[in-house]
Design brief:
This protein is mainly alpha-helical. It has 25 helices and five strands.
Amino acid sequence: MNDKKQGVVWDLTSFFPNFNGPEMIAFKKKLEEDIKKLQARAEGLGPLTEDNMTEWESIIVDSEDFYVRSGHLGSYIGCLSAADATNEEYKKEDGVYRVLLSEAEKLEVDVLHAFKGLDNELLKKFISSEALKDTEHYHRRILEKAEHTMSRQEEVLASELNVNGLHAWGRLYDSISGKLEFDMTMPDGETVRKPISEWRSLMSGPDFDIGKAAFLGGNEAWRGIENVCAAALNAISGVRLSLYKNRGIDHFLDMALFQSNIQKETLDAMYKAIHDNIEIPREIFRAKSDYMGRKGIWWFEREAPLPLEEMKNFSWEDGSGMVGKSFATVYPALSEYYGSFLNDRWIESEKRGGKRPGAFCTGSHLTGEQRVYMTFNGALGDVTTLAHEVGHAWHGHLLKKLRPIARRYPMTLAETASIFAEHILAEGIYKDDSIDDSGKLLMLDADVCNAAVLLLDITVRFEFEKAFHEERMKGEVSVSRLKELMIEKQREIWGDAMAEGSEDEMFWASKLHFYITQVTFYNFPYTFGFLLARTLYNLFQKEGESFLARYEEFLMLTGSDTVENVAKRSIGVDLTDPGFWAAGIKSVEEPLKLYKELLLKRKSE
């Protein structure tokens, strides 16, 4: 373990003792052999019938095992690549792994064609066997996806081209962003060079001048690669739009809805509630900027804390300790898991150059272990990120009890678990008598401003992505137009909560989420999860500790039904009702009221 003030370097040896050591090489060889055997078995089997039902059952069970093992390998490579973005061997290995996934996609093609047009009664009979127990939801999604498939030959070609096309653009973006450095001119006039992994934290600090210097310097670096970013963004969306057209998918949002496992009515209901109540999150940033004697905040300040004199950076020991103490106060089972998580070094948090920006949680169905990746720079936002990612890990830990097929949950529900953990952190700090009023005000500031970010920032991303895709359908979108679109959406959604001229025209380039190739429209699930998590947490506060059993039931259902049904079955709510989402937004008004009172009191002192 490294210096606790700098964070932790994770232990990945339970994946493989050494990168490309004999164990890993043998593991990869077995995967390559197994996928070829599965392909050969599935290729000539044809559509699912009563006569070949036993053979298809065996293929489904064996492919489930293959995906568990291939996911184990992919998680390991992803961890290595993120923690050392400059390592050429890791990049090469990621490319080899993408080829393996392409081969798995070819198997999926045969499975989809086997299920295409399948009679409902035959499907029921097929999944009634003991070997396919608890797979109904999974197979009904296969049936739904099968209706939008090209011919077998076209789908196989698409999977091969994605390796060197769609996913290659994503890898290119990861590579250039991981290596990026920027120069910032400090308030004292000194110019320093920083890795891009520190950019967000510098902008999210309490010092406006340092944040602005980082913002300007970082964006200058992004402008240096803006043409590459634009080419990647256009290529990724262009490939998707071409595939949608040939697969008979009517609208670019249809795939996002399928991946999120929600109905269009649900997404429309959520955004209707947001636009109808947009003044609530705007008022949060208006109150904050008024306290600072300004009109509106800058875009880069949206995650920055109040500039209080007593504000300080947290050491890793203090920050991780705050998370553990909060979990212990509010959710003991999660606290116990978190303790073992730290002891086993399942987290990569060390501050150093060469790391990819961002944070994530990944895991292995093979070992049942989770891993969290982040860079801990000492800001309160880093403490919140830690709680957020451990919330994901807890979700994965609970699902270990289920078969792998039933653990595949959509992002909309994944983000619910992580944001629920953020609420636990906040409540733990509010209840901690050892933390003074200033510390609690800072947590309240982080709490309400995070709500504003999820309702405003993420909505900007969603509206930008929609507008971009609409224009991309007519041809490539230029760098200048991408900048215009981003500024338009920031101004449209934020209104006067944003200072005039403080928009971030390069956000389309600097936001990793726009370049993730496995999932389209990666952003809106964060808002979805936030509002659903608020409802869950409000119920927790009303019902007390007894609610945690219902919460865990909710998490256990996330891979076994539609999002609407999960919510209905576990907490009895209708997600297609705008009123549900409006209630979540309006629940921010109470902490906002307290926030404004505390700011006014502090300003008058």
